[in-house]
Design brief:
The protein contains 5 helices and 5 strands; from the N terminus they run E-H-E-H-E-H-E-H-E-H. The protein is an alpha/beta fold and 137 residues long.
Length: 137
């Protein structure tokens, strides 16, 4: 089964931009999922768990209505039972240093990048994440 890239952001324009950049680079070597909220992302992850996905890289915003990105990552880390390899990247313009540290300690946060992001840097961080978890073919 292919590794999965899950992008989470409440701004549709950000998700569309990520989709264009990621699909352009990774093409069909990964599967893609997109969520407009942390709650939607948690539902997608539950579905991925049932499909026995082995490797997941999450790219998430921090400031979202309902649940912030660090809280979502902590919940994922605490509840995940069936996805062997999860790596998270926070893509944010406003995360506090406390939220970033919490996500690193409790939520599998690999790296924090700031908006507006450099697409080459993001691609490199994702490739490093897959390589770190040995998930990309």
């Amino acid at each position: 089964m292919k590794p999965v890239l899950l992008c989470v952001d409440d701004e549709q324009m950000i998700l569309e931009s990520l989709q264009m950049q990621l699909v352009s680079h990774f093409k069909e070597s990964v599967d893609y999922e997109f969520a407009n909220s942390a709650q939607d992302a948690l539902e997608i992850i539950a579905e991925l768990e049932s499909k026995k996905v082995a490797s997941l890289v999450i790219i998430t915003d921090w400031l979202m209505p309902g649940m912030k990105g660090d809280e979502m990552l902590v919940q994922i880390e605490r509840s995940n039972r069936n996805i062997e390899k999860i790596v998270a990247i926070m893509l944010t313009g406003q995360a506090s240093s406390y939220a970033i540290e919490r996500a690193k300690k409790e939520g599998a946060l690999h790296k924090c990048l700031y908006k507006p992001w450099n697409s080459l840097e993001l691609i490199k961080v994702i490739e490093d994440s897959f390589d770190k978890k040995k998930g990309l073919p």
